[in-house]
Amino acid sequence: MGEPMFLLLLVASVLYLLLGELQEGLILVGLVLVILGLTLYQEGKTERAVQALRDLSSPHARVIRDGQAQTIAGLALVRGDILLLAEGDRIAADAMLLSASELLVDESLLTGESEPVAKQAAASTQQAQSPSDDTAKRLYSGTLVVRGQAVAQVAATGARSQMGQIGTALHSVQAEPSPLRQQTAQLVRRLAWIALGLSLLLIAMSGLMRGDWLQALLSGIALAMALLPQEFTVVLTVLPALGAWRLSREKVLTRRIAAIETLGATSVLCVDKTGTLTHNRMTVAHLHVAGADLALKRLRPGELPEAFHTLVEFSILASETDPFDPMEQAFHRLGQQFLADTEHIHHDWALVHEYGPILFV
């Protein structure tokens, strides 16, 4: 809204209204309102989505205070707090492990890697508090515990955490106008100076020849308004806003409208690997039993052959009831897709005992 071209459009609409050109003035005012509405709606919608993503970096935390376990907001954590972590918890601050049992952490939000990372506790409290580079003993804010339990001591919060440092670096980045807007602004300035020169020349000639300086002034203003490039603002604001709206229907958020201009001029797109282009989840692609192999890609729900029912059933029974592990989630989705409403899905069964992972040496 602070763009020179947008301000020119506002000035043009005001001048038309002052000159008594009600129709032209109202049309320009309407265009201003349309531009404001589209821009504020799109940026507001995107900002709400981004705010929801920010909430991931400040979840609630279960801590030990005054000798008792209690749940507090992640923003209330301080260095030295003792965190109690379990499967499914999102870590609220950077911390060092004090004890852990079969702990796996999904750090894709921070690193982009979809594979969970195994963590192990420090050998002593002094080692946990020392600035070690061993990432196996460190937990990071915003990451997710997908398996196991742990006790950790908070080492950094807020802007001092790894996630906070990334946020601080992004906050310091200043948005620059796109090349198209820079070129257009330069063209507008040139045309504005030309319009001003011609208007002054018309005022001088008309006043000297006819002697009616008021009419000469009105004629000069009318010429300036006719020469001002008002349509550029409409084209460079309304069309990108419509493009951002179309992208939002494809589940792509546009933080700034100016990004649409750059995207339209892009000929080569360089992207990262897993975690950026994928849904960051696993899917069962093939099933194999004795003497049979089945690809699930072209199989429709309910068409799973009987020979594979037991395999899918046991894979679900060997998983957590409410899993967080990506592989176990894939088994459950497979059962919901192909074995729903059958005797192989046991929603009414109760878990009696849970066995930890068995390591074969």
What does this protein structure show overall?
Helices cover about 45% and strands about 15% of the residues. With about 350 residues, it is α+β, with helices and mostly antiparallel strands. It folds into three domains: about 5-50 and about 175-265, no CATH class; about 80-155, Distorted Sandwich (Calcium-transporting ATPase, cytoplasmic transduction domain A); about 280-360, no CATH class. Helix 6 (about 180-210) packs antiparallel against helix 7 (about 215-225) and helix 8 (about 230-250) packs across helix 9. The radius of gyration is 32 Å and the shape is elongated. Residues about 125-135 have low confidence and may be disordered.
What percentage of amino acids are in beta strands? 15-25%
Report the order of strands and helices. HHEEEEHEHEEHHHHHEEHH
Which geometry do the CA atoms define?
Answer: elongated
Radius of gyration: 32 Å
Average pLDDT reading: 77
| Largest sheet descriptor | 7 strands, antiparallel
Q: List the uncertain runs.
A: 127-133
Number of domains: 3
Please identify the structural class as seen in this structure. alpha+beta
Task: For the record, give the distance between the C-alpha atoms at the N and C termini, rounded to a whole number.
Answer: 67 Å
Task: Tell me the number of strands.
Answer: 9
Q: Which range best describes the helical content: under 10%, 10-25%, 25-40%, 40-55%, 55-70% or over 70%?
A: 40-55%
The number of helical runs is: 11
